[in-house]
Amino acid sequence: MHANMAAKNQQVHSQDDDDEFDEDTTSIESDRDYSKELEYKKNIRQLYLVAVIVFILTVAILVFSVAIFHINSPKFRIRSIIIDELSMNSLNNTIDMKFKTEISIKSSNFGDFNFERTSVSFFNRGTYVALVNGDALVEKGKVKARSTKKISFLAEMGATNSIYVDDMESRYLTLTAKATMNGTLHMMKLIKRKRSSEMNCTININMYKKIVLDIKCK
Predict the structure, then answer these.
(1) Same domain, residue pair 87 and 62
(2) pLDDT in tens, 16-32
């Protein structure tokens, strides 16, 4: 009888041990699954972070490339004109005028623009206006990257120029300044590009008050 009870107790203990072993095994497997899930999520986050960084770098490189290597022609404009002397002859519709002109050369590129010697011509309603010392000259020079260079020159219209009767009667004179500036754009000392810039500015002058009313450039 004692032997039977001992056997039963041994069977009970054996069953309990098996249950505990199964629980431990299940717990270990659950921990492993949880660890794998955490590692998987960590890898996903890392891949996502790498993808975001690659995307940002790609966009930055594209923007940088467009900004650096997109080349615009410099803007060649008349900024201001100051009239020093002005006299009119209504008998033959001629005018004498001395004026100081300031021009600007603006480059928005990431490179220096070396421009050649350029002549500026003036016209009155399409008719060429001869200056006393010939066309105004802009000597060759350089505009630094993303900057504006200002240059001034003196000019004089002589009495040999006839203007329209309507201009003389109204006391308003319209001049057009035209020029083509050629030069070379140097990008990071590696790339050279030939570029030209056109000046086409209209100047409206009140001859009675001897002032410039406005300057409009295309």
Answers:
(1) no
(2) 555 554 555 555 566 66
